[in-house]
Amino acid sequence: MFMFSPSVVLSKPNEQGFEFLKHLQGCHKGKNLKGVHQLKQYLEKFGYLHYEKHSAHAKDDEFDELLESAVKTYQLNYHLNVSGSLDSQTVNQMIKPRCGVPDIINGTTRMQSGKKKHQHGPLSLHTVSHFSFFPNAPRWPADKTHLTYRFRSSVQVVPPQTLRPVISSAFAKWAAVSKFTFAEAQPGFNSDIEIGFHRGSHGDNEPFDGRGTTLAHAFAPPIGLFHYDADESWSTNPTPNTLVFDLESLAVHEIGHLLGLGHSEERNAIMFSSIESGSVKRDLHADDIQGIQTLYNI
């Protein structure tokens, strides 16, 4: 097993991750409790909450009506009891390490809007799919079926000779079910995709937030950026029940974003937003395959 630790400390990791949410369990509308402002920040980060500029409630600890509505939308997306209060199931989902890509972008609830029932065609009959797309369904041009990638990190975490086969294997999963082929760009040539490890603010307006929170993120086509959080502990073969994350599992997920898929409501899908530490989840689910083939009309 390979395990890696950041060699340069650029910012202090948040050792508690999303654990701060635990002490808010049971909180509901009308309560004023220390830490509620952090819940607001969490839901804003993942697209569920937006206060008007200069709103008095944006940074206070009051559990107001707008926050209740945001919690209900979160519960709806994750198939939880839609109570609007922070029950144990909701808190347990919120504290899980996850992808940094928001569930809602520009007011579009991607996890719900991608849901459809297939009754004919190449997809399985009469099945409900839970995949989703980014707003306006961006995709790579029809004549752009061969994508190249390169590695560029601001923090050295994983040796290139270790990362290369991991990324190659992750791309192969998507190549097998789509029209795409992938290859590492030759030195000196431009690439369509850039993959690397970064910590904190790293130039893409989506700063990482320390250990045990957001693990990685990627952008919709044709931006082609895929970043791992260097503050996490990464492995090619993580041990169960440890705070270590599988490089390939996150790569397969983030490549889905690079190709245009949003998050899925299906918990067994690669494109589900969160993953347990110490676990391995590398194989595409039927929902992932339906999603990519629907997006590209395969």
UniProtKB/TrEMBL annotation:
Cofactor note: Binds 2 Zn(2+) ions per subunit. Can bind about 5 Ca(2+) ions per subunit.
One of the record's GO molecular function terms: metalloendopeptidase activity
Chain residues that bind Zn(2+) 1: 202, 204, 217, 227
Pfam families: Peptidase_M10, PG_binding_1
Cofactor(s) this protein cannot do without: Zn(2+); Ca(2+)
Motif range (Cysteine switch): 97-128
A single cellular component GO annotation: extracellular matrix
Binding annotation for Ca(2+) 1: 232
Keywords noted in UniProt: Calcium, Glycoprotein, Hydrolase, Metal-binding, Metalloprotease, Protease, Signal, Zinc, Zymogen
Protein name per UniProt: Metalloendoproteinase 5-mmp
